[in-house]
Design brief:
Shape: rod-shaped
Structural class: alpha+beta
Number of strands: 4
Strand order of the largest sheet: 3-2-1-4
CATH superfamily of the largest domain: Winged helix-like DNA-binding domain superfamily/Winged helix DNA-binding domain
Number of domains: 2
Strand content: 5-15%
Helix content: 55-70%
CATH topology of the largest domain: Arc Repressor Mutant, subunit A
Distance between the termini: 59 Å
Largest sheet: 4 strands, antiparallel
CATH class of the largest domain: Mainly Alpha
Number of helices: 10
Length: about 230
């Protein structure tokens, strides 16, 4: 923390060796803090300028937010995240709560953090690559911190659950191809229920899949299994 009431002078600004986009700021000959080179130029930080204790603390806080913001953007670059995921990420990094709150507000303001958009992404991704029933999807979204209203709105137009169960089951069907009807039904039903499908749609899909796999008629449009 800056010494109370003591105005200090910027005696040097040096580019950091490991990160040329950041600079080290020296006050009265001693290292004081690191800062974004671009933001430093915009704030008019030059050698010879004096800074009050309040200005020093403000600059340090601003840099903390900027570093956390850039870390969050990197975290978001792998896939969309929910607000809770970002908050948990900051907790793991032991970020000060006020800094984390400022970054979350900034991310939401620029539109890169949006729980409604995240929920839509999550469901679409699941249904494309690993289909789930509404029960499983609800549980996953709750775990991500999504509000119930958003979950309900997102799942409202999910479509026929039996058809989704059928698509999920077809990806697994070849694994059970040597089983007799009873064993196939038991295994497939268990698999689909673990994927969050209710008994009714899961049972109907299991019977349909078995009938298609054992049909003597050629099924030219039968989906290939993974």
């Amino acid at each position: 923390m800056a010494e109370y009431g003591v105005v200090k002078t910027i005696t040097a600004i040096e580019t950091q060796r490991r990160d040329p986009e950041r600079v080290n700021v020296y006050l009265d000959g001693e290292f004081a803090f690191g800062f974004s080179a671009l933001v430093a130029a915009g704030r008019g930080l030059v050698e010879g300028r004096t800074l009050t204790p309040e200005e020093i603390e403000s600059l340090r806080s601003e840099d903390d937010v900027e570093k956390a913001f850039n870390a969050a953007l990197n975290f978001l670059s792998f896939r969309p995240r929910s607000r809770r995921e970002i908050e948990n990420y900051f907790r793991r990094r032991k970020l000060e709560p006020d800094v984390g709150a400022a970054v979350v507000e900034r991310l939401e303001r620029i539109g890169v953090l949006d729980d409604r958009e995240f929920a839509r992404y999550w469901v679409e991704n699941r249904q494309t690559f690993r289909p789930r029933g509404t029960r499983a999807l609800k549980a996953e979204l709750r775990q991500k911190g999504i509000e119930s209203e958003i979950i309900d709105d997102t799942l409202a137009d999910l479509g026929d659950e039996e058809e989704t169960a059928y698509r999920a089951g077809m990806k697994k069907a070849r694994s059970y191809s040597t089983a007799d009807e009873r064993e196939f039904f038991r295994k497939m039903l268990g698999f689909l229920q673990r994927r969050g499908f209710p008994f009714g749609p899961a049972a109907s899909a299991s019977r349909r899949i078995f009938q298609e796999l054992t049909s003597t008629e050629p099924e030219t449009d039968l989906p290939a299994s993974d």
